[in-house]
Amino acid sequence: MTADLFIPCFIDQLYPQTGWNVVKVLEKAGVEVNYNPRQTCCGQPTFNSGYWNASRKVAGKFIKDFPNDRPIVVPSASCAAYIRHHYPELFKDQPEMKQEVDRVSRNVVELTDFLVNHLKIENFDASFRHKVTYHDACSALREYGLKDEPRRLLSHVRGLELKELPENTTCCGFGGTFMVKFVPISTAMVEQKVENALSTGAEYIVSTEASCLLNIEGYIRKNELPLKTIHIADILAKF
Asked: For the chain, which residues make up each domain, given as ranges?
């Protein structure tokens, strides 16, 4: 199987090794990975801030950058859910775009969903001998509908002990520009998230969302707490 790979902004700019690890995991699963170096952003930041015209331009470029009728794998349920649900909304007044928008919306799929439900692979013979807790990102849980897939993958990692996070449906305080516009509220939310993680005795917080991990990691580093963050792809790539 050949799949196209979309690397979100946060991973591309701040966690490039995670991007490479996504490739390693997909290739381990027997997928031929196609990466278009002309790709940029999916347009979600401007959409969430109300700049729909700007988002429409970025979305139009995304559609051109992914012209194939095959899976578009995304290591972020937030980006995948945005493309699935809001591209049709962005182009609802442009019927000439409907076929291409439907194609992209149909093909985009989050990484763990792709591995578990499309490829039917859960065990990558990975090893990560640490105690971890899993953070359900808001977009992943509520908009994409991702819940069991990451946990099923982590359950097959040798040496990994998964401790469920108290109040695991509560937001970490990232919310895109929310963390910039409402700093005190965002800080209180991430503080609660980290305290809950520490209460499990976990060494790492793992998630499918680099953006959430960025916010959580910032709080951890500022307060010099004994906790680390890691994307699930980085764990699965530890063959």
From this structure: 2-118, 131-236
